[in-house]
Each structure stands twice: as structure tokens, then as C-alpha cells.
Amino acid sequence: MKITCIAGDGIGPEIVREARKVLEKIATVYGHEFEFNDILMGGCSIDAYGVPLTDEAIAAAKEADAVLMGSIGGNTSTSPWYKLEPSLRPEAGLLKLRKSLNLFANLRPAYLYPVLKDACPLKESTGDKGFDMLIMRELTGGLYFGDRKTVERDGELVAIDTLEYKESEIRRIAIKAFDVARKRRKSVISVDKANVLDSSRLWRKVVEGVAKDYPDVTLEHMLVDNCAMQLVKNPSQFDVVLTENMFGDILSDEASMITGSIGMLPSASLNDTSFGLYEPSHGSAPDIAGQNIANPIATILSAAMMLRYSFNLDKEADAIEKAVELVLEDGYRTVDLMSSGHGDELKNTSCSEMGDLIAGRITDCKN
Ligand code: NAD
């Protein structure tokens, strides 16, 4: 399996190194072969080539079976990269890559590890109950990609953004959601605003059509305002949450916030083949870069998602997730997690030690 790696900027190289360490261990334990190919994207590509992503790098990513990424960007107030025009800044590279690879489905799991429940900002009883959901967000349509303009009308400025969805765009993301639900607890909650928006009424109709092909998966609809409330009231009710671009942008941040730990959250962006881009949900953390203190777990869990969704290696993905859980249960914590648990029993761990510990547990977790 060919994996293109984008270490990126800031803590990116440190956390990708640890994810590769764990993948190498998986390869040894399960008898697979992963071929890694590194490309530059973001600030490091600007420094080397003057642009955040070269055409050669895109071609290399397209040749791979999946892309594993760290994070890109620098300090947005002080880095010279942010004095460049917007199309030449680090983030433009990521948008260009997503577009070139047609990555329309964004998957963000939000799981509360029992050992990290103290980090959950919700009521203790909610933390005790736990939650394990996955937000499936449409990533290339809707309001963020519709026509927009600002015009002058009757002596004042009027801004217009267009929210448009085609049946085909809704159908392909709904199919992804139902396919993923089959690998989980077989429940999809589709979130929309069908009491107001035409685009949501079409969304509902198409999702119901797709659901007919998945009689083993239950489907419910929920209005987005209610979903925002339910996420903080009773998050354990959610398995797969299927939603459009802007609702997904907001709800996925809310869902990640209630886990209380930014360094733990992986993500995947998929197209209609098995190809995917896998990256942590956090940024490049320039404030702690180069100190070997970043939490690599979100990137390691992104590698597990890559095994599950691009390579269909569920057992290997399970082994990584279980290894992470065991290491946390043993009390090891990178600095960002030191407040989650009983202080005196916790062992402060560096980024590279965390990678070693998780890789070291893979054999115990072989299933
Ligand atoms: P950030 O997520 O990088 O950092 C926010 C805070 O969380 C910081 O205090 C940081 O130290 C901490 N943090 C983040 N990840 C951590 C980890 N793995 N371990 C321990 N602590 C961690 O967000 P920001 O500071 O707003 O952005 C920094 C840069 O990252 C910006 O240039 C931004 O544009 C970029 N960014 C990139 C991506 C991406 O590559 N997909 C996503 C978000 C932000």
C-alpha cells in the first residue's frame, strides 16, 4: 500500500513520525508492506518552491492509495507566510489538494475515552455515560461553494451567498454515511433545516431514498438547532451524524469540544473511491513546535482511520485504537492531557515516548 506523507509545518513532522512508527509496527505484526513517499505542503513548500503546493506534489498524492498528513501553517500574526497574498499562503495548499482529489466527505469521530472523561466539560453524569459518534460532513458543496456577491441596492450594501445542492452531491455523501454506519452501530441521524430551507427538503428526500438500500441501518432526521442542543444534552444518542457543509463545520467543532481534548481527534476526507486524506483535527501548534511535547494520538488515530476506510484493514485499525486506550489506561499523558485524571498517578510523556508506547502495545492488541 502506497502512502503519501505530508509532514507539513509546526508540530507536523513530530506527530507524523510517531504515526509512521505505529504503522511500521502494524506492518511487522500483521505482515503488510507500506511504502511511504514524502511531499511538501504548506509553509515548508513556500520556503522551498515559493508556492504552498506544487503540481508535482499533487501528482505524487494522486498516485498513492492514501495520504497521511500532519498539519500545515504557522503563527498567523508573526509568520512571513501570512504576508503573502491569500492564494500563496499555507492553507491554500490544503484547499487545492482537497479540490484536486475531489474529497467531498469529511469524517470526524468524537469519542470520549473513559480514562479521559474528566476532560469532558459536560455534567459528570454525561461523561460517565460516554459517547462515540462520527460526524459525516459534506465538504465540497453548499453555502461555502455557491455564488456570492456584494451589491449596492437602494443606497446600501447587500451581501448574497447562495446555498445550492444537487441530488447527486447529496446521494454520494449519504451513501458514505450509510456505508460507515454499517461498520459502526448501524444508526444514521441526518441533520438539516427542512422546516425552512429547500436545500434541506431535497436533502431529506434524497437521504430517505438512499436509506431504502440499507434496511439494516436506522435513519432519523433532526433539525440542526435541535442537534446543537442534543449534542450537549445527550451526546450518547448519536452514532453517525450526516449533514451538509456549513452545519457540519459548526457541529463537528461542537462535538470535538465536548471530548475536551484537541490532541486526540482524528479526521478523514474521502472521495468516491477508497482513496482518502487522513489528518488530525488540530492545527500545527507553532507555540509548541520542535519541543517533542505535542500529543501524536490524533495523527496515530488518523492512521487507524486510513487502515479502516482506505485499506479495509479493520482488525489492524482496532489494534491501534485499543493500543491507544491501553497506554492511556496505564496513566501515560502528553502535557495537554495532564489535567485529565488523577494527577499523582499520571506519567508525563513526550511525543516520541507516546509513539513508542503505542507501537509497543500493538502486539498485545493483535486480534
Ligand atoms: P492549533 O490547533 O494549532 O493550536 C491550538 C492550541 O492547541 C495551541 O495551544 C496548541 O499548542 C494546542 N495543540 C494543538 N494540537 C496539539 C497537540 N497535538 N498536542 C498538544 N497541544 C496541541 O490552532 P491554531 O493555533 O489556531 O493554529 C495554528 C496554525 O495551524 C495556523 O497556521 C492554522 O491556520 C493552522 N491550522 C492548520 C490546520 C490543518 O493543517 N488542517 C487546521 C487548523 C489550523
SSE blueprint:
Elements: E1 2-8, H1 12-30, E2 35-38, H2 43-49, H3 55-63, E3 66-71, H4 90-100, E4 105-111, H5 124-129, E5 132-138, E6 148-153, E7 156-161, H6 167-182, E8 187-192, H7 198-211, E9 218-223, H8 224-233, E10 240-243, H9 245-259, E11 266-270, E12 276-280, H10 297-309, H11 314-329, E13 332-333, E14 347-348, H12 351-361
Parallel strand pairs: 1-2, 1-3, 3-12, 5-10, 8-9, 8-10, 13-14
Antiparallel strand pairs: 4-5, 4-11, 6-7, 11-12
Helix pairs in contact: 1-10, 1-12, 6-7, 8-9, 10-11, 11-12
Nicotinamide-adenine-dinucleotide binds at residues 11, 71-74, 76, 91, 94, 262-263, 279, 282-288, 294-295, 298, 336.
Short recap of the structure:
This protein is of the alpha/beta class and 367 residues long. The protein has helices at 12-30, 43-49, 55-63, 90-100, 124-129, 167-182, 198-211, 224-233, 245-259, 297-309, 314-329, 351-361; strands at residues 2-8, 35-38, 66-71, 105-111, 132-138, 148-153, 156-161, 187-192, 218-223, 240-243, 266-270, 276-280, 332-333, 347-348. It contains twelve helices and 14 strands.
